[in-house]
Write a structure and sequence with these properties.
7-stranded mixed sheet, 2 domains, 37% helix, binds pyridoxal-5'-phosphate, 15 helices, alpha/beta, 437 residues, Aspartate Aminotransferase, domain 1, single chain, 4-stranded mixed sheet
C-alpha cells in the first residue's frame, strides 16, 4: 500500500498483473487460493501478529510465513540484526563468524546433533540429508510417510502434504519414475515394515503438512527402535517443529533422538534458510572432508544467520511455555466457538502448534485428514474468517501458527470471529453445497 490513504491497487488488480508474469500469480503454490476460492490478498506490510494488505485491510495472521517468523512480523530486534548484517555485506562466498554462531546454537539445543550444515531452504536440507543417509548406509531405499512434506526435491515429492495435498496432485509430473523408485510411502502413525535394505526413514515428528496430526503414542519411539535394529538412519524433518515445539525442537519434546535432523523456518528469523545435521560419524562424510557433495552459493548467508541467531538467542523455555499457553487458549477457544454453532470440529494442538479438522472422526493419518477435508467446510470457514479479519492458511492441510506476538487480545478476537464465522456457516440453506449442514 502507498503512504496515501487510498489504496493504489486492489488485490484483484494485483493478482491479474501477477498472473501475467508469474505462473498462477504466486511464487509458491500454497499461497494460491485455488483450494479455497477467491483472490489472494497481497501483503503490503506486517507487524507482530498483523498483516496489512495492499487495500489497507488488516488481518490477524496465523500463517506467519508458514512458521518462519515465531516472534511475529518486523520484530525490531530481528530488523536491527538484519540491518546490521547487511551493512557489513550481504554475502561473501567465504566463511563467517555468524555461521559458526548459528551452528553452535543449533547443536547446543538439539541433543545428539553434533554438526550441522546450513542451506538456503528446507527442501535442500531434506534432499541433502537423504543423500547423506544413502551414502552412510550404502543403501538406496528410503521410507517416508503419506501426507508428510519434505520439500519439493524429486525423490521426496511422493505422497506429499501441504500445497501438493491441497491441489490434489498425488505426485508432480516432470519427476522421472527412477527418481522415486526407491521411495516407499507408508501411512503415518503405523510402524512400517522396515528392514536392513533401507537407508533412511524420514518423518515429520509432528505431521504439520496434512493439517496437524500428532504422533500416536509409541510411534516415534517405535521408529527409533526399528531404525536402530536395522542400521537405518532415522531423519526427523523438523523444518516446522524445530525450535518451535520446544527449545530443543520435537526430539527434545518427545524424548526421541534421531540420527539426523532437517531444520528451516524458525532458524532463519524470516530469512531464507535451512539446515541438516546429525551424528558426527554421518556428517563427516560431507565434502570437503568426505565424498558426499553438497553446496550452496548463499548457504549460511550472513543476513539469515544474523536473524536466526538473534531469534534463537531470545527463545528460552519460558518463551515456549508462554507460546504453548497462547496456543492452548486459541485451540480451546476455536473448538468451543465452532462447536457452539453446531458444527463438529477437532482442534488438535501439540505444544505451540495448532490445527483444525472439521468432522468428528479421529484424524491419525493422511487418509483421515482427506476425509475431513472432503466435508468441504474449511474453504467456507476460511472465507468467513478472512472477511472478519483473520488470515488462516488458504488450504486445509496447513497448520495454524500462533506466535509470540499473538496476545490474549488477538486470541479473543480470533475466537469471537470463529464464533461468528461458524454461525454464518450454520445459517446456510440446507441445500448448501457444504455437507453436514
Ligand atoms: C516439514 C517440512 N520440510 C521441508 C519443507 C521445505 O522447506 P522450504 O519450503 O524451505 O524448502 C517444509 C516446508 O514447508 C516443511 O514443512
Amino acid at each position: 500500500m502507498s503512504a496515501h490513504s487510498e489504496p493504489s491497487y486492489t488485490n484483484k488488480q494485483l493478482f491479474e498483473r501477477a498472473c501475467k508474469v508469474i505462473p498462477g500469480g504466486v511464487n509458491s503454490p500454497v499461497r494460491a487460493f485455488k483450494s479455497v476460492g477467491g483472490t489472494p490478498f497481497f501483503v503490503a506490510k506486517g507487524k507482530g501478529a498483523y498483516l496489512i494488505d495492499e487495500e489497507g485491510k488488516s488481518y490477524i495472521d496465523y500463517i506467519q510465513s508458514y512458521g518462519a517468523v515465531i516472534l511475529g512480523h518486523a520484530d525490531e530486534r530481528i530488523t536491527l540484526a538484519i540491518e546490521h548484517a547487511a551493512r557489513l555485506g550481504s554475502t561473501f562466498g567465504a566463511p563467517t563468524l555468524g555461521e559458526v554462531a548459528l551452528a553452535e546454537l543449533i547443536v547446543g539445543r538439539a541433543e545428539g546433533c553434533d554438526m550441522v550444515r546450513l542451506t538456503s531452504s528446507g527442501t535442500e536440507a531434506a534432499m541433502s540429508a537423504v543423500r547423506l543417509a544413502r551414502a552412510f548406509t550404502g543403501r538406496e531405499k528410503i521410507l517416508k510417510f503419506d501426507g508428510c512434506y519434505h520439500g519439493h526435491s524429486d525423490a521426496l515429492l511422493v505422497g506429499g502434504g501441504s500445497g501438493v495435498a491441497s491441489l490434489g496432485i498425488p505426485d508432480s509430473i516432470g519427476i522421472p519414475q527412477g527418481a522415486v523408485s526407491n521411495t516407499v510411502v507408508a501411512p503415518y502413525n503405523e510402524l512400517p515394515p522396515i528392514d536392513d535394505t533401507y537407508a533412511a526413514v524420514i518423518v515429520e515428528p509432528v505431521a504439520a503438512n496434512m493439517g496437524l496430526v500428532p504422533p500416536a503414542p509409541g510411534f516415534l519411539e517405535g521408529l527409533r527402535k526399528l531404525c536402530s535394529e536395522n542400521g537405518v538412519v532415522l531423519i526427523f524433518d523438523e523444518v516446522i517443529t524445530g525450535f518451535r515445539l520446544s527449545a530443543g525442537g520435537a526430539s527434545r519434546y518427545f524424548g526421541v533422538v534421531p540420527d539426523m535432523w532437517c531444520f528451516g523456518k524458525v532458524i532463519g528469523g524470516g530469512m531464507p534458510i535451512g539446515a541438516f545435521g546429525g551424528r558426527r560419524d554421518i556428517m563427516e562424510l560431507l565434502a570437503p572432508i568426505g565424498p558426499v557433495y553438497q553446496a550452496g552459493t548463499l548457504s549460511g548467508n550472513p543476513l539469515a544467520t544474523s536473524a536466526g541467531a538473534t531469534v534463537l538467542g531470545l527463545l528460552d523455555d519460558a518463551r515456549y511455555q508462554d507460546l504453548a499457553q497462547t496456543a492452548e487458549r486459541l485451540a480451546n477457544g476455536l473448538k468451543e466457538a465452532i462447536a457452539s454453532a453446531g458444527i463438529e470440529v477437532q482442534v488438535p494442538r501439540v505444544s505451540t502448534l495448532v490445527g483444525i479438522f472439521f468432522g468428528s472422526d479421529p484424524v491419525d493419518n493422511y487418509a483421515d485428514a482427506k476425509r475431513s477435508v472432503a466435508l468441504g467446510l474449511y474453504p467456507k470457514f476460511f472465507k468467513e474468517m478472512l472477511d472478519l479479519g483473520v488470515a488462516l492458511a488458504p488450504g486445509p492441510y496447513e497448520a495454524i501458527f500462533p506466535g509470540l506476538s499473538h496476545t490474549d487480545i488477538e486470541v479473543s478476537r480470533t475466537v469471537e470471529a470463529a464464533a461468528e464465522a461458524a454461525a454464518r456457516i450454520s445459517r446456510l440453506p440446507t441445500d448448501s453445497p457444504y455437507p453436514g449442514k
